[in-house]
Amino acid sequence: MKKFDRNIYLSNMELHEAKKLFFDEIDKINKYVSTETIPTIDSMGRITTRAVFANSSSPHYNASAMDGICVKASSTYGADERNPVKLLLNEDFIYVDTGDPIMPPYDAVIMIEDVMEIDNNNVKIMKPAYPWQHIRPVGEDMVAGEMIIPSFKRIHPVDIGAMLCGQVLEVEVSKRPMVGLIPTGTEIVEPHDELSPGKIIESNSRVFENLVKEYGGISNRYPPVIDNMNLIEKAILRACDENDIVIINAGSSAGTEDYTSTIIKNIGKLLVHGIAIKPGKPTILGIVNDTPVIGIPGYPVSAFLSFEEFVKPLVHKFLSLKDKKKKLLKATLSKKIVSSLKHKEFVRMKIGKVEDKFIATPLNRGAGVTMSLVRADGILKIPQELEGIQGGKTVEVELLKDKNEIENTIVSIGSHDLILDILSNIISKTHNNIFLSSAHVGSLGGIMSMKRGEAHMAPIHLLDELTGTYNESYIKKYLKNKDMVLIKGIKRQQGFILQKNNPKNIKVFEDLLNKDLVFVNRQKGSGTRVLLDYNLKKLGLDSSLIRGYEREMTTHMNVASCVLSGSAHVGVGVKSVANTMNLDFIPIGLEDYDFLVPKKFIDTHMINNFISILKSQEFKDELENLGGYEMEDIQIVEV
Amino acid sequence: MKKFDRNIYLSNMELHEAKKLFFDEIDKINKYVSTETIPTIDSMGRITTRAVFANSSSPHYNASAMDGICVKASSTYGADERNPVKLLLNEDFIYVDTGDPIMPPYDAVIMIEDVMEIDNNNVKIMKPAYPWQHIRPVGEDMVAGEMIIPSFKRIHPVDIGAMLCGQVLEVEVSKRPMVGLIPTGTEIVEPHDELSPGKIIESNSRVFENLVKEYGGISNRYPPVIDNMNLIEKAILRACDENDIVIINAGSSAGTEDYTSTIIKNIGKLLVHGIAIKPGKPTILGIVNDTPVIGIPGYPVSAFLSFEEFVKPLVHKFLSLKDKKKKLLKATLSKKIVSSLKHKEFVRMKIGKVEDKFIATPLNRGAGVTMSLVRADGILKIPQELEGIQGGKTVEVELLKDKNEIENTIVSIGSHDLILDILSNIISKTHNNIFLSSAHVGSLGGIMSMKRGEAHMAPIHLLDELTGTYNESYIKKYLKNKDMVLIKGIKRQQGFILQKNNPKNIKVFEDLLNKDLVFVNRQKGSGTRVLLDYNLKKLGLDSSLIRGYEREMTTHMNVASCVLSGSAHVGVGVKSVANTMNLDFIPIGLEDYDFLVPKKFIDTHMINNFISILKSQEFKDELENLGGYEMEDIQIVEV
After folding, report:
1. Which residues in B275-382 belong to E strands, given as ranges?
2. What is the reported pLDDT for A32?
3. How far apart are CA A588 and CA A590, in angstroms?
4. Letter string b/e over residues A627-637, b meaning 16 or more CB atoms within 10 A of that residue's CB
């Protein structure tokens, strides 16, 4: 396919304008919410479309509130300890259980604990009853005609109980809209199909199905459609017949095989193609046969954000559900974010609470990085008119997680290692309500975060080129006035990560200068980079002669991935990663992988728990399992 | 039945002790959580029982990140505006769409916007590409072996997407426990059965079914069992066979027909019968055939609270789900609560935010008042060792509703009228995120709340005995130093509420002294009581001669209920209530029903909305519909 077959220019409509255009158009065709009357017992989670009034009072008769006897109050007057009043069964009193109806001539209940039995037919009492004592009068709970719940309210379990008490057996609620989901793309396959390069498992519609469920709609996923204009058109027309809302994913961009906008233009009304948001720009909004149709972009993060922005309010509109106010949290931005004037940007944020301050750090901003959504604690929306936000500024983040969970999270910023995943998992398993979140910015990045007070902990492994020792000299240099401790005891094997069977026969640092080789590097400030540069310098090797020295990855895993996929022949990283990815490994040396912690945090509940996990047998077993580590006694060393 | 057949003394074990005893016993018999492996696409909301690691990297091949052409970077070097580089199709470049795999010898992508087409086989470019530009390397999103989500995490939609990207097609999760629900009681009937006095619709198990769903379990309701020891025993044994947890409701107390504890003692292990909580004391905890069995009390509020206290953590235990920390809100207690040293008390609270202060007011504390749960914004737990809490103290309330909803609620405290339900419903319908909550404490109570700064608004109708005018003199007396306004314009008909066809032939106040008559009164401080006493005084009638003058109800509806159910022949109240309940009515007079508001609130968003609703046609129509009101122009009068 060629350039001229493509529609490469999308519009760049502002988000609020696109929403207004779309929802105004829907208002024209769909003015009335559909309602249905359903049994009260099946109404949990549904939204009332009119107020619910009690059909009957509750209790609907005068009921005994106690187990005991019911009496005529007037026949008990004058009773006291010295002059008990004697009462005759079926004449002066009858026995009642809680809930039994109280009928004339009886007008009071005496609890069983206050009744002394004389014989089978007679009892005595020591104090008088007052009229209506221990009787639940008709309507004590609710009175016929009283409102139980108002319109447009979500029905909770207790509401169902109350409606039944008021003899409301049916309730009018909004109909759940049916949302048709059409996955498209020649590249997508279903979960158990074979995967070859260029093919991917269709995952977006699986996220959508569950989001629709969360919103309160019914999802209706169609089988994937290949990139064929005719087939996609047929699928859309059918879906518009069978659903209240139709979603097409993907084909919303401007590639050779992106047909959606053209189809909607042909068979319906294309309202918007291209919105000034990032990710999510190539969103399509239209109407086909009076049905709202939304083209959602293909990148998973764009897909999620665009879906939340447009499909959620639309489903809520059908449900007559008020949009809840978003939960916002004020946090300090840990580093500068540059954004463009071309769009409003949605940045996934990791948030931690260090001392009294919430710190928000941007996660990977790539539209294809689903893990940025899995890891995100919130979304920062940067308005279009800002070119970015300075580090240190206070921002408002829309929360995706509980504030409570954020408050109980150990914030670790620093060097990457597989054991952080393992520690996070053991913490999740062992300790209620403590979590570990790790950001991977390299060892020096970790020390700088510590300096700015943005983390509880920084895993570091920085070699001092002069002394050949680890970490302490860096801390003394960068964190002069801070009382810090190192949690020491873990050593890990660093070395060359190589393709299986080492086809290029790499053995020593000198081999990296080989013109046939492509190397992949780590970022500046990472301990692994320091280790590499230290060795190159010691051997007098010129790094500019190494092909690929400029290509920087931020984790061991990404370095190993490059080697595995063939985009590099060699990189430097830890043995555990080479093991996990079944690659070859030649050791360079053993290094200290320490956890740097401000002294004031060392006795906190969270860090105490962390240390006890480092000392646990489970963690030792997991290290053993990974390979490439040596474990000594865990020690706390003041620096 | 007689006293001696009853087991009237329950134990009074402290809550934490009862929980420990019960859960320790369950740990003995049920050490391991059951797990199951299910398709990832069906795993929404389930809880992982082990960490989920990526089976494959994502992307699993080097993928184009753009629509454009892929090239060998080396063949583009040197390109600039004046010296464009010409590239030949299938030799120097090929066209690619986003997501297409990039294979050797190509190692860079140029976006289509930067490509100029010369003819069908040739393009030119104006700037060089650097290696790996616009290529998503293998593992950019996640790397094989990387943890996607840890153990014991609830699976969200985005997690499903990420797992599919990592080619994780199945996931190990905890099994949902099956909770058997056995309603018992000869008095209960199913929703569409006939209701006679003494019969009630079984509602508790319908609340339980939905609570179990909310907790994450599967509910399994059995048909109701009558109060027959043998039948209940059979039902329990069968349910213990078929479920992970068994709930019996009710029969947990000490009435003649409360068999549960005896049965559990006979066929299993009775651990606890009677817990020091209110409501909820007669809860039973036991084990039958290695299945936890809980006897839940019958009063709906006791039932709900006991269920939340015991069944929720039990279901969560089966699910390996961490109990979330409760959401607490600090609020000022609006009035004294007296509690007993005999139990920990759970008080349902209404919360409002007036200016910057959250104010918490206890709702009806009756164990049978389901509406107290429907209306509650939170629960205040008063420890056993406290005899009560003084008004004005700061308390921590466990929230049942969103703080946001509480913050956007108009707090009305004062006189009761049916129109408050109507206003609440119209507000709910018309205005996003504004709510109206009404507490009914009478007109004078409303003025006192205003004095203490606990409400935004007080509906009042207080007749000045001297002048015959309404409200203003009371405000001047009790709210001397406060700037207040009255929202005026609604007048309502007060009068005698009488049995249908007025069998006792009541016509004037003098008739109330008739010995054959039973009257029902309103509480002191209510405007209706003031109106009654004013008339009695004016006519020189002795109130002590009126039978039932001491029996006080707090709303018009409750007065009318007493008349309807025959426990009184006459009361004083508004015409709309008599109409709604189909009772007779003889007018006494028309009174001003005004809304008292501090002047500083009158221009707030919330009160503005309230006033616009008072002026709306919808409200006028509803008043017309109810009958008994006269509407004038709505006016704001400074007092």
Report:
1. 277-278, 284-288, 291-296, 328-333, 337-338, 344-354, 357-362, 378-382
2. 62
3. 7
4. ebbeeeebeee
- A345 at the B interface (CB within 8 A)? no
**Distance set, CA A382 to CA A347, A364, A385 (Å):** 8, 15, 8
Q: Which tokens is B330 given?
A: 């600090």
Query: What was the pLDDT predicted at B465?
Result: 83
Reported as type and span, the H/E element at residue B269 is strand B269-273
Cis omega (within 30 of 0) for bond into A150: no
Token pair 């089978």: residue: A120
**pLDDT score recorded for residue B533:** 94
pLDDT at site A1: 41
Task: Label residue B258 by pLDDT band (50, 70, 90).
Answer: confident
Q: What is the maximum span of chain B, computed from C-alpha positions, in angstroms?
A: 115
Those of residues 155-214 in A touching chain B at CB distance below 8 A are 156-162, 164-165, 167, 169, 187, 191-192, 195, 197-198, 200-204, 206-211, 213-214
Query: With contact defined as beta carbons under 8 Å apart, do B373 and B307 qualify?
Result: no
**In whole angstroms, what is the distance from residue A526 CA to residue A531 CA?**
9
For residue A561, give both structure tokens. Answer: 């991935």
**CB atoms closer than 10 angstroms to residue A391:** 14
Residue recorded with tokens 């209920």 = B561
Residues of chain B neighbouring A198 (CB-CB closer than 8 A): 61, 99-101
Query: Touching check for A568 and chain B: CB below 8 Å?
Result: no
Superfamily of domain B3-32+176-319: MoaB/Mog-like domain (3.40.980.10)
- Indicate whether B575 pLDDT > 80: yes
CB neighbour burial string for A429-457, b if at least 16 within 10 angstroms, e if fewer: bebeebbbbbbbbbbbbbbbbbeeebbbb
**A453-639 sits in which CATH class?**
alpha beta
Closest CA to B310 of B297, B300, B320: B297
Per-block mean pLDDT, blocks of 10 residues, chain A (639 long): 52 96 90 87 96 94 93 90 95 93 92 92 93 89 92 96 97 97 94 90 97 97 95 97 95 74 95 95 95 96 97 94 86 92 95 94 91 95 94 95 91 92 89 83 93 94 89 94 95 96 95 92 92 94 92 90 90 94 93 96 94 95 93 94
Strand A337-338, strand A277-278: pairing? unpaired
Q: Enumerate the β-bridge partners of residue A149.
A: A52
What's the pLDDT tens digit per position in B37-63?
999 999 999 999 999 999 999 999 999
Q: Tell me if the domain spanning A35-58+140-174 has CATH number 3.40.50.2000.
A: no
Residue B520: phi and psi, rounded to 5, are -130, 135
Q: According to the CATH classification, is domain B63-136 in 1.10.510.10?
A: no
Question: Which residues of chain B does CATH 3.40.980.10 include?
Answer: 3-32+176-319
Instruction: In whole angstroms, give the CA distance from residue A311 to residue A215.
Output: 9
Question: Quick one: fold of B416-639?
Answer: D-Maltodextrin-Binding Protein; domain 2 (3.40.190)
Buried b (16+ CB within 10 A) or exposed e, A475-501: beeebeeeebbbbbbbbbbbbbbbbee
Q: Is the CB of residue B117 less than 8 Å away from at least one CB of chain A?
A: yes
Residue B9, pLDDT score: 65
The whole-model pTM stands at: 0.91
Q: What is the pLDDT of residue B565?
A: 84
Number of continuous H segments (helices) and E segments (strands) in chain B: 17, 38
Q: B326-407: which CATH architecture? A: Beta Barrel (2.40)
Residue A152 forms contact with B (CB below 8 Å) = yes
Give, for A404, the enclosing helix (H) or strand (E).
helix A403-407
pLDDT tens readout for residues B123-175: 999 999 988 899 998 899 999 989 999 999 999 999 999 999 999 999 999 99
pLDDT computed for residue B1 by the predictor? 40
